[in-house]
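Customer escalation, tier 2.

The customer says the design service returned an amino acid string that "doesn't look like it belongs to this structure." They asked us to rerun it and document both sides in this ticket. The original structure tokens are below, unchanged.
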């Protein structure tokens, strides 16, 4: 079911006037037009300047290191894991992209045994001419595997056939490479690795690009489903969302994933990544007054299932909220999400739509869930808002100070295919306030209770700073009046 709010449902339509008169808040500097998904970065991430839609050939290269712990699965097992018709990496990408992106099977190549001296653990560091001051053991390691495995399979795998533009240089847009090795003991787990140019004279091509670098995914130490999906998302430009610790655990495939080779964990990417990949178009609502929306479950295949809330007090659109419904019962590829209910992602990005990164490495794409019953664990970025709950404050810092909202999750059953949420402002009143602009925010409050009540939506909260007013009012809607900083006297 698609959600309706304030009379408009379809993306990009002009909202009806009732949306904007509902709250009656003064919105100096507000953006008049409703922003579009591209204003928030829709479709801006991709692989090597190509959007993350359509198809990309993917070849999987297997390398067994002898003399150190670890054993590869068989080629058919990797084939099924990555390209099988069900419960496979490729079906995962088809599902999470709402059918907009898939890898095409170039092949699964193995048959190579390498000595432990070529393993990452034992490889000597060598100066990297392309990156002064950096060692290039990763590059040597990766390029050696690429060269060895392709040479061993030269009779059956036609690498030159992937040189689509016939420039004798195979780029990532023409063929993507996933390396899986047997190496269990290494100084790192998994990741994108830069590969030195690999010249293949027997095929008349090289694997390289103009900047002397080529990304190869290396899943050497771990071969689990979620980690393979995680690294392939990196190939599309995704950011890690787990720094500084394993944050957002199981809330997004861009959290920590390293586990056992047969680890059953599966979880969707967060809605920001799905949006910037061009895989979903969140419905966009301004935080003016209250609103209601149904959220089909993230696994529904409905590209407009998430909701994006933005604050017109911040015309730069540099921060916003993404709301989505997650349910591990309703989708094979999101079965490990920790709970059922509303995920509330807070995003801060720069003018290029890249995530803001804090000093500790934290990317500002952050699920703000409730603390668990055993406070402070689980951490709030790995929990969801359940049936009948009301979230903490959503706060933005705009030119008029804080605009504060909460989201209430209507009651739902655990197997429901969608949930309904409503958002409503919290209004501030200070009888002593003498500023020119009254916006109902903490720092630019209304100075009469009547104004605060008029600006509130049913079910909202009016915070009244300590003081007194002779006003006498009859409340005709459901509100909570809450004093702040001391006693607030009304009618005296
Ligand atoms: Zn990563």
């Amino acid at each position: 079911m698609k959600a309706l709010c304030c009379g408009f449902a379809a993306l990009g339509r002009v909202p009806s006037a009732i949306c904007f008169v509902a709250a009656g808040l003064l919105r100096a500097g507000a953006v008049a037009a409703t922003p579009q998904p591209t204003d928030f970065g829709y479709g801006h991430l991709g692989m090597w300047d190509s959007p993350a839609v359509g198809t990309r050939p993917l070849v999987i290269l297997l390398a067994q290191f002898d003399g150190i712990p670890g054993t590869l699965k068989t080629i058919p097992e990797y084939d099924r894991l990555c390209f099988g018709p069900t419960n496979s990496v490729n079906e995962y990408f088809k599902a999470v992209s709402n059918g907009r992106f898939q890898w095409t099977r170039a092949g699964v190549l193995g048959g190579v045994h390498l000595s432990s001296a070529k393993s990452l653990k034992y490889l000597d560091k060598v100066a990297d001419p392309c990156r002064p001051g950096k060692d290039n053991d990763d590059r040597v390691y990766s390029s050696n595997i690429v060269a060895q495995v392709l040479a061993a399979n030269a009779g059956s795998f036609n690498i030159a056939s992937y040189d689509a533009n016939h420039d004798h240089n195979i780029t990532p847009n023409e063929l993507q490479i996933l390396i899986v090795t047997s190496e269990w003991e290494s100084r790192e787990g998994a990741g994108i690795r830069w590969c030195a140019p690999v010249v293949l004279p027997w095929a008349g091509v090289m694997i390289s690009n103009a900047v002397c670098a080529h990304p190869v995914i290396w899943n050497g130490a771990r071969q689990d489903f979620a980690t393979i999906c995680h690294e392939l998302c990196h190939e599309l430009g995704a950011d890690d969302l787990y720094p500084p610790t394993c944050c957002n655990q199981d809330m997004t495939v861009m959290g920590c994933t390293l586990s056992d080779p047969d680890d059953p964990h599966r979880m969707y990417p967060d809605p920001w990544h799905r949006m910037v990949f061009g895989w979903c178009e969140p419905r966009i609502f301004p935080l003016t007054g209250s609103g209601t929306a149904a959220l089909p479950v993230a696994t529904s295949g409905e590209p407009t299932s998430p909701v994006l809330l933005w604050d017109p007090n911040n015309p730069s659109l540099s921060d916003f909220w993404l709301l989505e419904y997650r349910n591990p019962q309703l989708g094979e590829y999101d079965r490990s999400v920790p709970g059922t209910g509303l995920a509330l992602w807070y995003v801060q990005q720069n003018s290029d739509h890249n995530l803001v990164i804090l000093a500790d490495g934290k990317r500002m794409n952050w699920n703000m869930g409730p603390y668990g019953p055993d406070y402070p664990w689980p951490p709030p970025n790995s929990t969801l808002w359940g049936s009948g709950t009301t979230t903490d404050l959503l706060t933005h810092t705009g030119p008029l100070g804080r605009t504060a909202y909460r989201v209430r999750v209507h009651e739902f059953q655990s197997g429901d295919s969608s949930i309904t949420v409503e958002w409503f402002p919290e209004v501030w009143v200070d009888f002593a306030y003498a500023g020119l602009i009254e916006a109902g925010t903490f720092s630019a409050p209304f100075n009469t209770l009547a104004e605060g009540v008029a600006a509130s939506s049913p079910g909202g909260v009016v915070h009244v700073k300590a003081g007194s007013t002779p006003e006498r009012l009859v409340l005709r809607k459901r509100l909570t009046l809450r004093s702040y900083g001391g006693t607030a006297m009304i009618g005296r």
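Tier 2 assessment: The sequence is consistent with the input. The two ends are 50 Å apart (CA to CA). The pocket of zinc ion is lined by residues 230, 234, 240 (CB under 6 Å). Sent an explanation to the customer and offered a walkthrough call.
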